[in-house]
Structures are given as C-alpha cells and as structure tokens.
Design a protein that fits this description.
By secondary structure, this protein is mainly alpha-helical. It has 47 helices and no strands. Among the domains are: 116 residues, no CATH class; 184 residues, Serine Threonine Protein Phosphatase 5, Tetratricopeptide repeat (Alpha Horseshoe). This is Pentatricopeptide repeat-containing protein.
C-alpha cells in the first residue's frame, strides 16, 4: 500500500515528536556502542505504523562511520528546536558534525544509563581500577593517533576581561547581594535578576572572579543560566572554567564543558586544560589525562599549550617518568617541546631531589633545539637555596653567564635573596646582597625587608636592626613593611614594650603604621596574656586604623587561651556584625574550648548563630558539638545535633558516626549502635579502627559475641581490619569470656602473624588465671600447628600447672614441642624429658 504525501508528512511528524520525547527522558536512547536502545525504540514504533525506521547500523565494524551519516540524514528529515538539549535547525555536513560531537560527549552533559559499565570517559570502570598509573601508557593513545601533517592554524585571539570591571558599581552591587546568600529573600533575588539583565558579559566574568568561594561563583553561574531572557555569552563559560581550574571542583568543570558541547559553543584547548587541572587538583590523575581523549573526540586540535598542561599535571602528580615519556611522544607526532615543557620537567627533577639530572637537562636543552631561560635556572636555584647548597648555587650563577649567556641581573639577585630568606638563611641572603651591590646592582627595600624579616623570625633582632641602620645610611628608606617586620620580631621574643616604642618611632620617621602593624602588636599583647588591653586598643582604633578579620581573630584566640570564653564569643559576634566571617577552624577551636569546660549548650548556640549568619560551618564543627554532648552524657542532645546536620545539608563522616556509636554503646543502647553502624555503611562510609575498637569493647562487655560477629562481617566487607578478631579475643579475655574467645581462635590463626601470637598469649594467661591449664595447653598446641612458637616462660608456667593437676603427659608433650623446634628448655625440664 502506497502512502500519499500528507500521510508521510504525518508519520515524519510522529517520529520527530517521539524522538524528541525520548531524547528528553533518556528512554531507550542512551548512546551505547551498538546503538541497540535507539534501534529498538524506532523499530518498535515504526512496525506499528508500517513505515521504514531510521536506524543506525548495528555492525560493530561500521558503528563509528555509519552513526554520523545516519544522524545527519535523520536531522535533515526531522528537526526540532530544544534549547535545553542543543537541537537546532539546519541541514548539511555541519549538522552532522555537530551531532557527532554531541554524541561523543553526550555523557558529559546529561545523565545517561550505562548498561555496558563504561564511565563518562569512555573506559570500563573495572579496567580503570586494575590499571597502574606507573606502567600504563594508554593515556598517550591520543598522541599516537595525532595527525602530524595537520595544518597549524593561527592562534585565535582570546578575549581578555579588563580588571577594572571588578570595580564597576553593578559588579560590586551583585557581589554584595551574593554575600547575603545565607539570608536570601524574594526581594533580594528580584533585585539580582534585574541587575543581571544589565550586565555585560565581561562584567559577569568579573562577578565570577570576584567571589572568594568558587562554589558561590559556580552556583551563581547555574542560577543566572536558568533565568528568563538571559543567556550566557561564550566568554562567560571560558571564564567559569578558568575559575574552576584553581579548585578541586572537577565535576562542576566537567558539567560546564558538557554545556558548551551541547550548546555548540566553540571550545578552546585552554578549556580542556582547565578541566584537566581541576581533575588533577582533586587527585584524579588518570581522569585528568583522559581529558585529552575527549578533546580529540570533539575535534579540537592538540597544541603545545595543552601538552604542557598534561606534562605539568603529571609532574604535580609525582609521575615524572610518565611526563618524560609523554614529552618523547610529543616529538614523534611532530609537536616540538618548548622551554615551558623543559621547565616543567626540571621542576619535576628538583621535587625528587635529582638536581644533577635537572642541571643535565639544562645543558642538553640547546642540543635539543631549545635554549634555557632564566626560569630554568631559577627553578634549580630555588632547590639549592632550600638545601643551603651555596657553593653549587654560585656555580650555577656562573654557568648561567658562561654557557647560556644569560647575564645575572638585579632580578636574579633579588630572586636568590628572597628564596634564601624564605627558607630561613638570612646570613647567606645578606652575603648575596653584598655581592649584588659590589657588582653595581641596587637591591631595593623589598630585598632588604625580606632579610630583616628572616632575622626577626630567627629571633635575631639586633642583626635586623643593623640591616635597618644600613638601609638608612644607603638612602634606602625603610617602609611600613620593614618596621612591621621588626615590630613583629620584638613581639615574638616577648619585648612588647620595645614594640610599642617602635610604633611611636614610626610616626616620627613619617611612616604611618597600618592594620598589619597594630595587629602584630595586639598579637604580642595577647601572647603575654593581656587580651583585655589588646581589646581596648582595638576599640580606640577609630580614626587611626581599621581592624580586619585577622585582628579580630587574634583577640578572640587570646581570650580563648586565657579562658575568657564569653568575651571570645562576643568578639566572634562583633566580627560577624562587621562583615568578617571566621573560618571553620577558628569556630571549631572556640566551640571545642566551650565543650571542654562543660558549656556545650553555649557552643551549640554559637555554632547555630554562625550558620545563620552565613559562616562556613562544616561537619567538623557539628562533630565537635556532638562529642561535647556525648562527653556530658546527654545523648539525646547529641542525636538532636545529628538531625540538624541533615537539615542543614551537612553529611556526617566516619568520625561523627563513630562518636555517636561509642556514646550509644556506653549507655548500653547496643541495638541503636548497630542501626547507626548499618546506616554509616549504607552511606558508603568506611569504618575506622576507632569504630572497630568501640563496637568490640561494648559488645564484649555485654557478652553479645554472636551479634558482634554478624555486624563485623558486614563491616569487613567494606574495610578490611586485620586485627579485628584479635581485638575481639583480647576484649573477651579482659571481660572473662575465655571460652567464647577460644572459639574464635581459628579466625586469628589464619594469618599466623606476631599480632596473632600476642593474642594467643593473652588467651593462655586468661586460661591460667581461671585455673584451666588444659585450655592453655590446647592454645599452645594450636599455635605450634600453625608454625607459631609460644613464649617459652609462659609455657613453662603452663607445664607446672599441668603437673600439679597430674597431667604430666600433656606437660611433657608441650615441652617436647620446644625441643623439636630447637628451643632448649631449662635444665630441670631436660631431666623430666
């Protein structure tokens, strides 16, 4: 039966709608290697209406070639617009190319089913677990398939965002609104939406870069992307990836790259480099290298910059051998290493204390067609400064001049002076300063200040003052940083009165002290126990200087160390009112001090106030409060805080669960402790050694061995603890359950280690203590059978007890085992044998 044009058009409309529906719901359309899901859906649908389905080839040999062609043909027939999933109108090869790239990175943008067990990087999860980063070269396969004859295009111009955009009123207002994220209201969100539509793309980038917390920047990116009548400019995506490259938020970076693929935004090699660095910072070295494969799938050309990023990632991941092999592969495919490549390898050598190899590589660089620059030498100089190898450092400076024709200039000497000062070698730095001045170079006040600060850190205040006097004689006037370094040095050695006098002298020399100067003085007062005086001085700061977050933290810790916890809490509240947010570490130190003196309720109240005001309260802070309530015996309050963690989207960790489990066990609520342990395992958390010790102690105390063994089987499936059964036996012996401990001896003797021998000795002593030397004899025999030799003196005591019980045969057999092993018993026992 033939179909007319109207019927065919209707069928095409049905197919297009069905395909769009399945694309949205990911039903039967996940992109697998053989496209079985896609073919299944269309064959079933088309068979109902008697039409020929549009399907991909299922042949494994043609799967890569036929899929794009069929996709292009299908897109010419059925085109629907769906901004969320990247569909767009158009025909031709360009559409085929876009669809092909969309499918190759489909797993990066949307959730997909994964029937074949492949991860988002296209590799099997099982294979990845078993592979070794040291021996596997599969990460370089993209270099093997690189087309060395490809024409190098001109480097595209990058859009640079003006730094002055951060000072723009609109940008500053949006940043102010984002700071109120903890107390968000519909009115604030309405204002933010209105301002968002007035921002230029460069100003949106400025907002992202201005956030101190990159997670806030990422949330703002997602929020803005969902707003009506607004769409991110391409440079915003590039800016967001650059921000994420400085963090461990690799999943966020991966998602941003997936959005760029789906929305057909041009991706630069630098974007893949940002994702690679983010994965590297998060500790996923293998996934970082697999970004190169994804880059190749999208058709982005490999260049020297992305290769240098890969080498730097390997070096930072302590994989120098792989970095060297990667650089050799680069040459094979026609990408010549440049000076940045070699500098990364030199850095890798230095981090492994192979300074000779680093120096040798510098000597070989001209032969390899790339001359070293000053950074190459500075990298090795930094290592020599750290190791205080001054003679080799001077030799490297001469080699830099004679062999590489690089003149040591003022920058060179400043670099050496700063590196030596950083590592605490003030005298050596002062020697290079003299040498620089003899050669006619003028070291500025920054170099002198570095030496002064180094002397002060070492407590050599007199030497620091001599350097300051030399500065005055040379006409190099000390600035506020120099005086502050000396002032801090006085405070470090406890001479606060001298620090006060120096503060007055700074005014006489026309150098006005700043916030850092006063904060150093206040820190000295707090260290001497004069926190109240420091507080009064800070209150009198108006018109003279403005305290910052460090100033408030210094006084808060001073009150905390002196035990004036109420004053410390008031400082934290004042700090928050002024717009300074204490860090989680500072909050934890204060609430820990409150819990130690039994003021856990006040600690909880302070933590909740900080949380409401927008402070970064983390799981450690909650755990400290929970531990405080557990120490007080108020378990109900501890469980209440645990519930608050879930309400505030703070997920408990192993320490949190272990603290609650131990408290439940001490209260005798074993069943609740078991349920809490199962909950911890269900959350994917691994039990710690402390978790095992706590559970074993409380279960053995009540003699519930069977319940303990059932629970331990589940725990050992997640995290193996070799000494778990040893601890059970020892605890059972401690609480007098010797027979139960003997039944578990077989689980301990499987490994026959020294720890197992100690557990057996404890069991032998327990049997002797209970007047059962036959039990001790059986334990000793089982040790011999497992090639473990018991303690000779302990077995002599067992033998004596057996003789007293008229068990001389067992006593003789026990000592005979020692003779067979070559352990000669005492003379008295030889006669008995």
């Amino acid at each position: 039966m033939s179909l007319n044009r109207n019927a065919l058009s209707k069928i095409e409309e049905i197919l297009a709608t069905a395909h769009r529906f399945c694309k949205i719901t990911s039903l039967h359309t996940c992109y697998c290697s053989n496209n079985t899901g896609y073919n299944y859906f269309h064959k079933q649908l088309c068979s109902r209406i008697g039409a020929i389905p549009y399907s991909f080839s299922s042949s494994s040999s043609n799967s890569h070639s036929s899929a794009p062609h069929s996709a292009s043909k299908m897109r010419e027939q059925f085109v629907e617009r769906d901004d969320d999933f990247g569909w767009t109108r158009g025909t031709g090869s360009e559409q085929s190319r876009i669809l092909s790239s969309d499918y190759s990175l489909y797993s990066w943008g949307v959730e997909k089913c994964n029937p074949d067990g492949y991860n988002e990087f296209g590799e099997s999860e099982e294979v990845e677990v078993g592979k070794s980063d040291e021996d596997s070269d599969d990460d370089f396969r993209d270099l093997n398939s690189f087309d060395r004859n490809i024409e190098r295009g001109e480097v595209r111009s990058r859009i640079e965002v003006d730094e002055d955009e951060i000072k723009h009123p609109l940008v500053r207002e949006i940043c102010r609104l984002l700071d109120f994220r903890a107390a968000w209201t519909p009115e604030l969100e309405s204002n933010l939406k209105r301002l968002l539509r007035s921002l230029k793309p460069s100003q949106v980038c400025a907002v992202l870069r201005a956030q101190s917390d990159e997670r806030v920047a990422l949330k703002f990116f997602y929020w803005a992307d969902r707003q009506w009548r607004y769409r991110h400019d391409p440079i915003v995506y590039h800016a967001m990836l650059k921000v994420l490259s400085k963090t461990k938020l690799c999943q966020g970076a991966k998602r941003i790259l997936g959005l760029m693929v789906r929305r057909k935004i041009e991706i630069w090699p630098e974007d893949f480099g940002c994702v690679m660095v983010s994965f590297s910072r998060a500790g996923h070295l293998r996934k970082a290298l697999q970004v190169l494969t994804l880059m190749q799938r999208t058709g982005v050309e490999l260049d020297i910059s992305i290769c240098n990023t890969a080498i730097n990632v390997l070096v930072e991941g302590k994989r120098l051998e792989k970095a060297l092999r990667f650089s050799e592969r680069m040459k094979v495919v026609g990408i010549e290493p440049n000076v940045i490549t070699y500098n990364c390898l030199i850095k890798g050598y230095c981090e492994r204390n192979q300074v000779e190899d680093a120096t040798k590589l510098i000597e070989e660089m001209p032969v390899r067609g790339c001359s070293p620059d000053k950074v190459s030498y500075y990298t090795v100089m930094g290592f020599l400064c750290k190791e205080r190898k001054i003679d080799k450092l001077k030799g490297l400076v001469e080699k830099m001049l004679n062999e590489s024709k690089l003149l040591p200039d003022q920058v060179t000497y400043n670099t050496i002076i700063h590196m030596l000062s950083k590592h605490g070698y003030a005298e050596e730095a002062l020697g290079f300063l003299r040498e620089a001045e003899e050669k006619g170079f003028r070291v500025d006040k920054v170099g002198h200040t570095a030496i002064v600060n180094c002397f002060c850190q070492e407590g050599k205040i007199d030497r620091a003052k001599d350097v300051v006097d030399e500065m005055l004689l040379k006409g190099c006037s000390p600035d506020v940083v120099t005086y502050t370094a000396v002032l801090n040095g006085f405070c470090r050695v406890g001479e606060v009165d001298q620090a006060k006098k120096l503060l007055q002298q700074m005014y006489k020399h026309g150098c006005k002290p700043n916030c850092v100067s006063y904060t150093a003085l206040l820190n000295g007062l707090c260290r001497r126990g004069n926190s109240s005086e420091a507080r009064e001085m800070m209150n009198m700061s108006e018109g003279w200087w403005t305290p910052n977050a460090v100033t408030y933290s210094v006084i808060m810790h001073g009150f905390r160390r002196e035990g004036m916890l109420s004053e410390a809490c008031e400082i934290v509240r004042e700090m928050i009112r002024k717009g300074f947010y204490p860090s989680p570490v500072e909050i934890n130190l204060l609430i820990q001090s409150l819990c130690q003196v039994g003021r856990t309720d006040q600690a909880r109240k302070l933590m909740e106030e900080c949380l409401k005001k927008g402070c970064a309260v983390n799981v450690v802070n909650f755990t400290t409060v929970i531990h405080g309530f557990c120490q007080m015996g108020d378990l109900d309050a501890a469980l209440s805080v645990l519930d608050d963690m879930y309400l505030n989207n703070k997920h408990p960790d192993e320490v949190t669960y272990t603290t609650v489990i131990d408290a439940l066990g001490r209260k005798g609520r074993i069943n609740e402790a078991v349920e809490m342990t199962k909950k911890m395992l269900h959350c994917g958390l691994l039990p710690t050694p402390v978790t095992y010790r706590s559970l074993i102690h409380h279960f053995c105390q009540q003699g519930k061995v069977d319940d303990l063994l059932k629970l331990m089987e589940k725990m050992l499936l997640r995290e193996n603890c070799r000494t778990a059964y040893n601890q059970v036996i020892e605890k059972l012996c401690c609480f007098g359950y010797v027979d139960e401990a003997y039944e578990l001896l077989g689980k301990v003797l499987r490994t026959a280690s020294r720890v197992d021998a100690n557990s057996c000795h404890i069991l032998i002593r327990s049997f002797l203590k209970n007047g059962n030397p036959l039990g001790s004899y059986r334990v000793a025999c089982r040790m011999f059978n497992r090639n473990l030799v018991p303690d000779l003196k302990l077995c002599e005591e067992v033998s004596k007890k057996l003789i007293l019980l008229q068990k001389s045969d067992e006593a003789d057999r026990l000592m005979l085992r020692f003779v067979e092993r070559g352990h000669v018993p005492p003379e008295g026992k030889q006669a008995a044998i």
